[in-house]
């Protein structure tokens, strides 16, 4: 019996160390040199200040007398390069496009990734940047995962003409439970509080502040929510929870057979036709 207890204690201690290490890795900055912008987007490197404390780096791809402007927001630990394919089809469709690196990613400096909290300030700064360039433009956002979370957490609520969010968690607790369960089963759920409790002392933000579910009803523009039909990180029930709380007009689409991945790549033609149809009604 003592031997079994000792083995269990060692395994538990190892799991705790792994969870603490995971917290550090998830929040650690992922900064890298992006390189030159794609020539086919007529992209101009831009930098602007954000209340997150960062100078946000990005590419502005303008079209004179176009259909409007689209802000593209990448997922967690990703940067503007992950949104280039979306930028291309939107640019071809006549939209000016702004791609950014959130604080602590890409070429934008920051101390920690904050799962949407500080990133929401970068969203507000990016919208202000577009408004300053073209005050009369109709502006929409396409946010993937963390990008969608940051758009919903923005305070005051965003004043935009359309919002597309993909694979957005309803609360950070649910996002953590899902992922821990995916990797470690029931034992993972038991360890989830160890990950969640790191938010306050590591990032200075509480779990109660990372609840897109509490913000989505404040979005007054048309909303298009997209998720993967087989996503185990943001499960269909999680997405429906957000959809039910949102105001009309709203749309919901589950990409067939897709998990938690780049939904544009998973269903390129269908994705582009649905997103453009939504944006063209702005």
Report on the structure:
The protein has 282 residues and is an alpha/beta fold. 40% of the residues lie in helices and 18% in strands. The chain contains 10 helices and 10 strands. It has an 8-stranded mixed beta sheet with strand order 2-3-5-4-7-8-9-10, sandwiched between helices. A two-stranded parallel sheet has the order 1-6. Strand 4, helix 2 and strand 5 (95-100) form a beta-alpha-beta unit. The termini are far apart. The model is unreliable at 6-14 (pLDDT under 50).
Looking at this protein, list some descriptive labels:
282 residues; alpha/beta; eight-stranded mixed β-sheet; two-stranded parallel ribbon; 10 strands; 40% helix; 18% strand
Ranges where pLDDT stays below 50 over 5 or more residues in a row are 6-14
Radius of gyration: 19 Å
Number of helices: 10
Strand order in the sheet with the most strands? 2-3-5-4-7-8-9-10
Helicity level, as a percent range? 40-55%
Describe the structure concisely.
40% of the residues lie in helices and 18% in strands.
SSE topology sketch:
Elements: H1 2-27, E1 30-31, E2 44-49, E3 55-61, E4 68-73, H2 84-92, E5 95-100, E6 105-106, H3 119-133, E7 139-144, H4 146-153, E8 162-166, H5 172-184, H6 186-196, H7 198-203, E9 223-228, H8 236-245, E10 250-255, H9 263-266, H10 268-279
Parallel strand pairs: 1-6, 4-5, 4-7, 7-8, 8-9, 9-10
Antiparallel strand pairs: 2-3, 3-5
Helix pairs in contact: 1-6, 3-4, 5-6
């Amino acid at each position: 019996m003592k031997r079994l207890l000792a083995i269990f204690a060692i395994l538990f201690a190892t799991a705790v160390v792994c969870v603490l290490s995971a917290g550090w890795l998830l929040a650690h900055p992922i900064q890298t040199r992006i390189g030159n912008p794609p020539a086919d987007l007529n992209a101009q490197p831009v930098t602007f200040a954000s209340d997150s404390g960062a100078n946000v780096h990005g590419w502005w791809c303008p079209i004179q007398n176009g259909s409007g402007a689209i802000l593209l927001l990448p997922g967690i630990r990703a940067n503007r390069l992950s949104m280039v394919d979306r930028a291309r089809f939107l640019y071809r469709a006549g939209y000016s496009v702004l791609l950014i690196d959130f604080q602590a990613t890409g070429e934008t400096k920051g101390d920690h990734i904050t799962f949407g909290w500080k990133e929401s300030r970068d969203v507000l700064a990016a919208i202000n940047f577009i408004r300053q360039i073209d005050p009369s433009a109709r502006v929409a956002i396409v946010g993937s995962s963390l990008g969608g979370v940051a758009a919903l957490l923005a305070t005051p609520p965003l004043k935009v003409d359309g919002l597309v969010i993909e694979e957005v968690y309803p609360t950070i607790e649910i996002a953590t439970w899902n992922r821990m369960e995916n990797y470690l089963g029931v034992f993972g759920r038991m360890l989830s509080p160890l990950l969640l409790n790191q938010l306050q002392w590591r990032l200075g933000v509480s779990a109660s502040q990372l609840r897109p579910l509490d913000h989505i009803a404040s979005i007054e523009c048309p909303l298009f929510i997209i998720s993967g039909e087989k996503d185990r990180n943001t499960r269909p029930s999680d997405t429906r929870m957000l959809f039910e709380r949102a105001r009309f007009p709203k749309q919901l689409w589950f990409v067939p057979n897709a998990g938690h991945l780049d939904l544009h790549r998973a269903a390129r033609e269908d994705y582009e036709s649905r997103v453009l149809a939504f944006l063209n009604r702005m």
